[in-house]
Amino acid sequence: MTKDFGNLPAGGSHSGEAVGIDDLSVYVPGLFLPLSGEFSLDRGIDPGKLIKGIGIERMAVPDAHEDAATMAANSLLDLMQRCDLAPEDIAKIYVGTESAVDEAKAIGTYVIGMLEKVYGTGSFQDCSTVEFKSACIGTTLALESLSYWAAAEEEGRVGIVIASDVAKYPLRSSGEYTQGAGSVALLVKKHPRLAALEQIYGCFTRDENDFFRPMGCTTATVNGKHSNQCYLEAIQGAFDSFAGKAARSGAITPKSEECVTDFIDHFLFHIPYPRMVEYASAAIFRHDWLGCRKGQDVELEIGKEPQSLDYEDLELYQAAKADYARRFSKSRHFQEAYLAKVADTAALSRVVGNIYTGSIYLGLASLLELQKIRAGERLCFGAYGSGCSALVFSAIVQPEAETVPSRGIVKRLEERRQISLQEYERLHEGLMEKSLVEPSAEFALASIDHQGYRHYEYVC
Ligand code: HMG
Question: Fewer CB within 10 A of the terminal residue: the chain, N end or C end?
């Protein structure tokens, strides 16, 4: 569909100059555990459930020398090398993480310490850093914040947003097969090559106990089914807020029979596990299509939505709604929209798992590596963080996007080492004294001293 950008320059901000994501870099640990085979056998879970029902085939597992800080430093170094950035070009490093390595010291200061081992002591002195913690939405809130700074920046310097997390649940828990680890670094600046933010942010926040990690715990506590429900309600609320703001700004103004989703080419949702983006998109499309032509077509295919007035018993009404939701997600119209606009974003997550706050940007990396995005297309991001918050925002793919070189992520993922169940469990419990694969050309944790201060090195 031809897009009407209203009063905005295509993909621009109200301040005039376009601001957004110029490039990104992904770091994933070199170890992985397949979910079929030894793991599913030992846990007594049908591999079909993990691979189809959850959607994860392989989980990235950090080695003994890796943590959220080393992964962040590795993704940033790769980004700087890709984009030929010098330390003095970078004014701000905002790090989104819920796997902090210290309760007070910002993870970005450890990252800067590591980068200075490559670029020289003091080279990042004129760069500020702050840690954003807000479960899986931390990086997105950092990006929103940094985009306002970038729009006002007059000296040609750039900002970096890094997502870095180790997703960790107790062994043998139902969260265990939705773990993973990795980091994504985003270069944020004026005149970005990849995607210009439209600076329209739809928000939703409420206090929830769906997922949290009390002080001192190394694994998250999760109320699994409740967390899915919170995610869906929050994304729905943020999408409505986004749609209202997009209409008021003139960016998305559907005419009669059109709906907001018609104006969006790719949806990038937070990906705790690939099936979740299917649930999220089904909820968004179903809601958005009500009252539009598409909604009428779906009604012809699967019938009308159940109405509460037709049910005396609340349980029966809820069961009818759940059944309708299942039928909607299998409907031809939804499946076509899902395959065209959503499914590809989960490609990398299937072989990495949840990387918490970076997962949504791993979705962007999937689209880029699969060469699925084209200049002028509108991306709609749906970030979710437990606790809980959602932020829905949009960006326009820029003309230079197709010229940005591939990151070779797929090849790097193929070169990872498969580990055994026993090795995974020992790493998970922190019982591995030595690394399974000696670090090479990367940052590594060397030691933790008697005060708890962490010492990192760059291993050539
Ligand atoms: P579960 O109980 O393991 O799975 O919980 P299930 O029983 O709900 O089954 C999942 C799907 O597998 C179902 O599909 C089953 O039918 C299917 P559906 O019916 O929905 O279409 N299935 C099979 N398919 C094929 N062959 C089979 C088979 N058996 C069943 N044999 C849950 C899953 C995700 C809840 C659990 O793993 C968990 O608690 N994970 C951690 C929490 C989580 O990821 N929540 C997501 C929303 S919250 C969020 O995204 C935030 C987060 O990233 C943290 C943050 O913000 O920081 C987590």
Answer: C
Residue owning tokens 């869906």: 232
**Vertex 11: Cα angle to 404 and 380 (nearest 5):** 85
What is the percentage of the chain residues whose pLDDT exceeds 70? 97
User: Which of 20-34, 267-281, 284-298 has the lowest average pLDDT?
Assistant: 284-298
Cβ–Cβ < 8 Å for 385, 97: no
Question: Which candidate, 368, 372, 309, places its Cα nearest to that of 339?
Answer: 372
52 lines ligand 1 (CB under 6 A): yes
70 lines ligand 1 (CB under 6 A): no
Distance in Å, CA 178 to ligand 1 centroid: 8
Q: Is 345 in the pocket of ligand 1 (CB under 6 A)?
A: no
State in Å: Cα 327 to ligand 1 middle: 18
Kindly report, residue by residue over 221-239, the tens digit of the pLDDT.
999 999 999 999 999 999 9
Burial of 50 (0-12, 13-18, 19+ CB in 10 A): buried
pLDDT of residue 3: 42
Q: Are 112 and 122 in contact (CB under 8 A)?
A: no
Cα Dmax for the chain: 72
- CATH for 19-459 (2.60.40.420, 3.90.1170.40, 1.20.140.10, 3.40.47.10): 3.40.47.10
